[in-house]
Amino acid sequence: MALGKIGDVGFLKCGLFGGAGTGKTYTGTLLLAAARKILGPGQFALFDTEGGAPYIKPVVKELMGEDLIGESSRSFDKLMKFLQDCEDEGVKYVLVDSISHVWTQFMDDFLTQVNQRRAQSGKAKLSNLEFSHWRAAKEKWGKLTTLYLNSPLHIVICGRAGNVWEWEENDQGKKELRKVGSKMKAEGEMAYEPSILVELFRENAPAGKRLFRRVGEVLKDRFSKIDGMRLVFECSDSAKKNLAAVSKAFAPHLKMLKGGSVQPIDTSPSEHDVDDEGDNGWRREKREREILVEELSGLLESKITGTGVKGKRQDLLKEVFNTYSKTKIENFDSDTLRDGLEKLRVRFMEMESEKTSDVPEDEPE
Fold first, then answer.
1. How far apart are CA 256 and CA 12, in angstroms?
2. Are 21 and 97 contained in the same domain?
3. CA-to-CA distance for 164 and 184, rounded, in angstroms?
4. Which of 87, 94, 106, 293 is a good FRET partner for 236, with 20 to 30 A between their CA atoms?
């Protein structure tokens, strides 16, 4: 096994999520503009699922000096193609807004197609996907997370906030649901993929300021530079001032990135010795041995009857397997057991033939 040298992290992989009006799209745009200043120039592109492109178009023009390009869609397949096109066309900075819409449509489309197949087979329509469907759905979605992690793109993914609920016991000893946190509304594993994950909020601003200001709570920073910090972005009419605030907040993380370095995750398939039921070689061998031992026992019981059967059966096993030990025979590999079973069948055929030859012929009259 040849171990390779671990490379540096070269590309921003950020997740931003929050409720309505927390500034996900705007903050994501500012963050990528800040990344451009630190990591170098490059085209910016937007995958827009909620019609926000026209609103940030002038911001992109002012801060990056270029026209906004991208695509408006909620299709999973189109998002995959969009990211691949960005790579092919030299785009460097990408904003996906919002992944929550893509996930919702992805699952709706999956259910629709399942029901179309069920209708063709005369089966009833499902209102929700069943447990057996999730493996296939997650396997396809996993192609997006792999592309997200391995692509040579700086990507900020925005998502809506969803509540996390747990059952808790109240003072009267009764169970009730309580909100215990929040998460990004997307496939369950999606929030684990970004190298930096930030939840955005709005809070009241001090007197003399705007009615609110934006706050980011850093839930994860793999560089541990701003991990756990509370970032405050004062709102201003000036996009440049807002950029300066976001740039200052995220600079410790951005400066750790080594532009151009890629540390791809190898997703090549592993070989599994499994059959069509998903059993691996060991389980399959164990089950085969159990079946062969049962066939041996059944054959002996059907052919050796009458008095002294135990001794006769043991003698035959000794003749075939060279042991009287039942435990030893049960632990033979399946090939040895299969060979022994065949020898035993042949032996019984010989015994039947011997019995037939011992019958005297009728004497002539």
1. 10
2. yes
3. 10
4. 94
CA–CA separation, 341 vs 365, rounded Å? Answer: 45
Structure tokens at 10: 């070269």
- Measure Cα distances from 220 to 24, 27, 193, 202, 311 in Å: 17, 17, 11, 20, 72
Residue 22 lies in a domain: yes
CA 228 to the chain's CA centroid: 26
Q: Are 257 and 10 in contact (CB under 8 A)?
A: yes
Residues 17 and 107 in one domain: yes
Torsion angles phi and psi, residue 248, rounded to 5:
-65, -40
- Domain extent, residue 66, equals 13-125+136-165+178-254
pLDDT tens for each residue of 32-70: 999 999 999 999 999 999 999 999 999 999 999 999 999
Q: Answer positive or negative: Cα dihedral of 349, 350, 351, 355.
A: positive
Q: Residue 306 has which token pair?
A: 């009458």
Q: Count other C-beta atoms under 10 Å from residue 26's C-beta.
A: 22
If one compares 177 and 3, the residue with the highest pLDDT of the two is 3
Residue (of 72, 34, 35) closest to 52 by Cα position = 72
- Does the pTM surpass 0.90? The reply is no
